[in-house]
Design a protein that fits this description.
The complex is a heterotrimer of chains A (about 240), B (about 375) and C (about 80).
Chain A lengths: L21 H15 L5 E5 L7 H4 L3 E4 L5 H11 L4 E7 H7 L1 H10 L4 E6 L38 H5 L5 E8 L3 H19 L4 E7 L3 H4 L3 H15 L3 E5 L1
Parallel strand pairs in A: 1-2, 1-3, 3-4, 4-6, 5-6
Antiparallel strand pairs in A: 5-7
Helix pairs in contact in A: 1-7, 4-5
Chain B lengths: L2 E6 H11 L4 E4 L7 H12 L3 E4 L3 H13 L4 E5 L1 H16 L4 E7 L15 H5 L10 E3 L4 H18 L2 E7 H5 L1 E6 L25 E2 L9 H19 L3 E4 L6 E4 L2 H16 L4 E6 L1 E3 L4 H6 L5 E6 L5 H9 L5 E5 L8 H24 L1
Parallel strand pairs in B: 2-3, 2-4, 4-5, 5-7, 6-7, 11-12, 11-14, 14-15
Antiparallel strand pairs in B: 1-8, 6-13, 10-12
Helix pairs in contact in B: 1-2, 1-6, 3-4, 9-12
Chain C lengths: L2 E4 L9 H5 L5 E3 L11 E3 L10 H5 L5 E4 L15
Antiparallel strand pairs in C: 1-4, 2-3
C-alpha cells in the first residue's frame, strides 16, 4: 500500500482551516490527473471563494475567474483547445447562486468540460453567510433564525436539477466525510475526467464537504453533520451516466 | 488584393474581424447589433472558428476571457445595456492583461432606452466602466471604411499591448451600408509571441492567469503601477484623428463617430460661406488625441463640441484645451441626431461672435 | 516493510485521522507544531496495518505511506514521541 502526495499537488501548506474538505478534494483531483497522465494538457479554473488559491496548490495551468463565471471561461478555453482537458473547481455560491446561469447553460450545451462542485452549504471565504445549498433551518450569519424562516427558500439540489437536461453525460453526488466516501469520490472524479477525454460532454461531480469553521462545529462534528444532515437532504448517487 | 464590398456596418465588422484572424466570437442578441452574431454564426464555421450564442452578455465576455487565455483572437459585440453587463468581465480581462476586441454599437439610454443611435456610453468606455483603475483603447470609426480598417487594427492593438480594445460605434454605423475597400489584413506591429497563454504545461512550468493580488500587501499597488506604465505608453504611442481645414480655422468643430461625419459636411458648407471653420475628429478617444487641439488653439477663437450625448465628450475636449478657449456645446442624449444645418447654424453664430469680439478689441 | 510517515509541520490538528483509524492507533500530540497546531502521532507502530484511511481522510497531506523506507528520515518524521 503506497500513499503519497500526487505530483499535481504542490508540496505547500494550504490556507484552509483545520478539517476543511477542500484539501481532500484538491488531492483527489490531483490524484486523478496523475493517474490519467494528463497534467501537461490540463487547464483548471479557480473560482471566487475559499478555493480561489487553487493555483497555489495545483501543479498545472490555472486561470482564476470572476465569481460564478468558471463554466463560461472553461467553455472559451475548451472550444479554442478541444484536445486539452479543462476542469472547473467551484463552490456552492460560485456555482449555484451567482453563476447558476453559466452552470446550467454550459451543462445544457454539453460543453466537454468537467466540473468539480464542492458543496459545503455555506459561504466560507466571506465568513459563513447563507449559501444556495444551506439546509432548511441551518444557521448562518445571514439566516440567523435558520434558513426558511424569512422567505429564503430551500437548498438547491444541483445534480437533480441538471439531470433534467440532455446536455450532461455524467452527474454524481459524493462526499468526503468518511474514508469510503473519499474512495468513491476519487472514482467519480476519475470517471468525470474520462468522460471528457472520451468527448462525451459535460460532467459534474458534486462533493458534500465539511466547513467546521463557518458551521461553528468541531471537525468531528462537521463530519457528523455531513453524514447525518447533508446526506439526508442531498442523497449520494449517480444521477446521469451515458 | 482589396475588393470593394457593400455590406451593413455590422456585417462588414464581421468580415474585417475574420480577415484579422479572429477565430472566436461569443455574443448575445441585442438591437441594433444583431447582424453581428447572425453573420458570425455561419461565417465562423466556414473559417474553422468558434461561434457561441452565450446565455448572457456576462457569459459572453467571460467566454472571451477563456478564449483569450487559450491564445485565440476573439471578439464580442453588444449594444449599450449589454455592454453594461460586460463591465465586470472587461475589468478582469484588463487586469489579467489579455487581448480581446469588444464592439459597442451604442443605442439610447439610460435604462432600456431606445434603439436609436446614441453616444451615451462615452464615459463608460473611456473612463473605465468597470471597477478599478484600468483603461481600454477606444476606437471611434465614422465611416464603414474606417470601421473595416480600425477593426483590422483593433486586434493588433489588443495583442501588442495585451489589452482589451473597444470599437465604439453606434446604431447608425451598424445599420447603414456604404461601399468599403476590404483590404487584406497586414499586422500593424511586429507582434510579440503569446508566452502567457494557458495551453497545458508540457515542457514548461505551469502558468497562472489571475487578477487577485493579496500577498505581499503591496503587490496590487505594484500591479497597478505596472498597468499605469503601460497606459502611459499607449498614450505616447496612439493618437488617431482627422484634422480638416484647421490650419487657419477660427471656429473649430469637434466630434467623433457619426456626428463627426455630419460636422464635416457642415464645416465644408461654412467654408463655402467664407467662414473660417475647421474640424477635429478623433478616431480614438482613449488615448485621447491632444496634439490637434493644442495646435488649433493657437488660431481658433472658439470650439464647438457636437455629440449624441448630454455632455460627456466635451469634458475631454476641455481638458485637451486646458480651458484656454470657450467651448460651445451641441448635443442631446436619447437618440437625437445632429443635422448639418444645426451645426452650420452654430458655426455661423460662433463666427459672428468672433468677429464682434475682434471689433471690440480694435475699439479698445 | 512499509512505513507510515506523519509530517507534523503539515498537520493542522483537525483529528480526522484519529476519527477514522480502524485501530484507534492515532492520537494528537500535546506539543504544538511551528504553526501552533497539535499534530497527529502514531500510538503503536506495530499495530498499524498501513490501510491509509488516515491519509485519505487527511485534508493536508500530513500522512503518507511508503512501501520502502524513505531515503531521508528527516523528511519523514515517524513520530511516536
Amino acid at each position: 500500500m503506497e500513499f503519497r502526495r500526487p505530483k499535481t499537488l504542490k508540496n505547500v501548506l494550504t490556507h484552509y482551516c483545520p478539517g476543511c474538505g477542500h484539501g481532500i478534494v484538491h488531492r483527489l483531483v490531483a490524484e486523478v490527473i496523475d493517474e490519467l497522465g494528463i497534467r501537461e494538457r490540463t487547464i483548471g479554473t479557480a473560482p471566487v471563494g475559499c478555493a480561489v488559491f487553487l493555483y497555489d496548490y495545483m501543479n498545472c495551468d490555472i486561470i482564476e475567474c470572476a465569481h460564478g463565471r468558471p463554466p463560461a471561461v472553461a467553455t472559451g478555453i475548451k472550444r479554442v483547445l478541444p484536445d486539452r482537458i479543462v476542469f472547473t473547481y467551484q463552490g456552492d455560491g460560485d456555482l449555484a447562486a451567482i453563476g447558476m446561469a453559466e452552470t446550467i447553460h454550459a451543462a445544457n450545451r454539453g460543453e466537454n468540460i468537467t466540473v468539480i462542485f464542492v458543496n459545503n452549504a455555506i459561504y466560507g471565504m466571506t465568513g459563513g453567510q447563507m449559501a444556495p445549498t444551506t439546509l432548511m433551518g441551518q444557521w448562518s450569519t445571514t439566516s440567523p433564525a435558520g434558513r426558511g424562516q424569512l422567505g429564503e427558500g430551500g437548498p438547491i439540489k444541483v445534480c437533480e436539477m441538471l439531470s433534467a437536461l440532455d446536455g450532461p453525460c455524467y452527474l454524481e453526488r459524493v462526499a468526503v466525510s468518511t474514508p469510503k466516501d473519499v474512495l468513491r469520490t476519487q472514482k467519480a472524479i476519475r470517471k468525470a475526467f474520462e468522460k471528457q477525454i472520451d468527448g462525451k460532454g459535460f460532467s459534474l461531480v458534486e462533493v458534500l464537504s465539511m466547513c467546521p469553521t463557518d458551521w461553528k462545529l468541531s471537525p468531528k462534528e462537521a463530519v457528523e453533520f455531513v453524514n447525518e444532515k447533508m446526506k439526508a437532504v442531498f442523497p449520494l448517487g449517480v444521477f446521469k451516466d451515458r | 488584393m482589396s475588393e470593394k464590398i457593400l455590406l451593413k456596418g455590422n456585417e462588414l465588422l464581421v468580415e474585417a474581424a475574420i480577415e484579422a484572424d479572429c477565430r472566436f466570437y461569443a455574443g448575445y442578441p441585442i438591437t441594433p447589433q444583431n447582424e453581428v452574431p447572425e453573420r458570425m454564426s455561419w461565417r465562423m464555421p466556414q473559417v474553422g472558428g468558434v461561434f457561441i450564442q452565450a446565455e448572457s452578455e456576462i457569459a459572453a465576455i467571460n467566454m472571451l476571457f477563456g478564449a483569450s487565455a487559450a491564445g485565440a483572437r476573439c471578439m464580442t459585440s453588444s449594444s449599450s445595456p449589454g455592454i453594461s453587463l460586460k463591465q465586470e468581465g472587461i475589468s478582469y480581462i484588463a487586469a489579467a492583461e489579455l487581448p480581446c476586441v469588444i464592439v459597442n454599437m451604442q443605442r439610447g439610454g439610460p435604462g432600456l432606452g431606445n434603439i436609436r443611435a446614441s453616444q451615451g456610453d462615452y464615459f463608460q468606455s473611456v473612463k473605465g466602466g468597470g471597477h478599478g483603475d484600468y483603461r481600454l483603447i477606444v476606437l471611434t470609426p465614422a465611416t464603414l471604411q474606417e470601421l473595416y480598417d480600425l477593426t483590422l487594427n483593433a486586434f493588433d492593438y489588443a495583442d501588442f499591448y495585451r489589452n482589451p480594445v473597444m470599437i465604439l460605434g453606434d446604431g447608425i454605423l451598424g445599420q447603414m451600408a456604404e461601399p468599403a475597400e476590404a483590404h487584406p489584413y497586414r499586422p500593424l506591429f511586429n507582434l510579440p509571441p503569446k508566452d502567457y497563454i494557458l495551453d497545458g504545461c508540457r515542457g514548461r512550468a505551469p502558468r497562472v492567469i489571475r487578477t487577485l493580488f493579496l500577498r505581499p500587501s503591496d503587490s496590487l499597488v505594484q500591479h497597478n503601477l505596472r498597468l499605469q506604465k503601460k497606459y502611459a505608453r499607449m498614450q505616447r504611442e496612439i493618437s488617431l484623428y482627422e484634422e480638416f481645414e484647421t490650419a487657419d480655422a477660427e471656429v473649430v468643430v469637434t466630434a467623433y463617430g457619426i456626428p463627426g461625419r455630419v460636422a464635416k459636411g457642415a464645416v465644408k458648407r461654412a467654408r463655402r460661406e467664407g467662414l473660417k471653420a475647421g474640424l477635429i475628429r478623433p478616431l480614438c478617444v482613449w488615448p485621447f488625441p491632444i496634439e490637434p487641439y493644442k495646435r488649433a488653439v493657437k488660431k481658433a477663437k472658439s470650439f464647438l463640441v457636437v455629440e449624441m450625448s448630454q455632455g460627456q465628450f466635451i469634458e475631454d475636449v476641455k481638458l485637451a484645451l486646458e480651458c484656454r478657449r470657450p467651448v460651445a456645446f451641441l448635443g442631446k442624449g436619447g437618440g437625437w441626431y445632429p443635422s448639418e444645418e444645426e451645426i452650420l447654424e452654430q458655426i455661423r453664430h460662433l463666427a459672428a461672435a468672433c468677429l464682434k469680439g475682434l471689433k471690440t478689441q480694435r475699439k479698445a | 516493510m512499509p512505513q507510515i510517515c506523519f509530517y507534523a509541520e503539515h498537520c493542522k490538528g483537525c483529528g480526522l485521522c484519529v476519527l477514522v483509524c480502524p485501530h484507534q492507533n492515532i492520537r494528537m500530540s500535546e506539543d504544538l507544531n511551528e504553526h501552533g497546531h497539535p499534530f497527529a502521532v502514531l500510538v503503536d507502530p506495530a499495530r498499524c496495518t498501513y490501510c491509509a484511511m488516515c491519509g485519505r481522510m487527511c485534508p493536508d497531506m500530513a500522512i503518507e505511506i511508503h512501501e520502502d523506507a524513505p531515503s531521508s528520515q528527516k523528511d519523514a518524521k515517524a513520530a511516536t514521541e
